[in-house]
Amino acid sequence: MKISAVNESVSLIANIGVIGSIVFLGLEMQQNTEMMQSQTRNSIVENQLSLLERAIDNNDFAKIAFELREDADAYPEDTVEFFQFRLFAISQLRIWENEFYQYQTGLFEASEFEAREKTWRANIIIGSIHKVWATRRDQFAKDFVEYIDRLYAEEIEI
């Protein structure tokens, strides 16, 4: 009888230990997810700032970007100026694609993603950005292409 009671007590303690370990593991996973979200957000902000600094630090490029945002045909596509803008726009689109992917994997909150979408809607209808998108969209993930194309279609209907 005593051995049975001891075995039951040991079994109970072991089960409590297993449950405690599972709870601890769950807490660790939650903290890890929060850390990943924070690191992802920081990385994306750094990328965005780096992209914006190109225009801030370079008056010549800022002028080109401004003129092309105002008039998609301000520079012919075979000029150095348009080539430079195209690379800038593709970089911007890659950041968007990454943000879209991060949201799909759950590393962005819905409210944060909605704010991004508003920015994308405002920018994809700019003639020069859409011109780059239209000629380079085949270089992006299919689900992202469908998403941006839908945003564009919705915006031009408004």
Low-confidence stretches: none
Number of domains: 1
Distance between the termini: 81 Å
Percent range of helical residues: over 70%
Rg from C-alpha positions? 25 Å
Overall mean confidence score, pLDDT: 87
Report the order of strands and helices.
HHHHHH
Q: Can you put this structure into words, describing what you see?
A:
- By secondary structure, the chain is mainly alpha-helical.
- The chain has one domain (2-157).
- Helix content is 85%, strand content 0%.
- Helix 1 (2-57) packs across helix 2, helix 1 packs antiparallel against helix 3 (80-104) and helix 4 (110-124) crosses helix 6.
- The longest helix is centred in the N-terminal third of the chain and has 56 residues, at 2-57.
Concise account of the structure shown:
The protein is mostly helical. Helices cover 85% and strands 0% of the residues. It has one domain (2-157).
Short key terms for the protein model shown above:
mainly alpha; 6 helices; 158 residues
Question: Could you give the topology of this structure?
Answer:
Elements: H1 2-57, H2 59-70, H3 80-104, H4 110-124, H5 127-136, H6 142-157
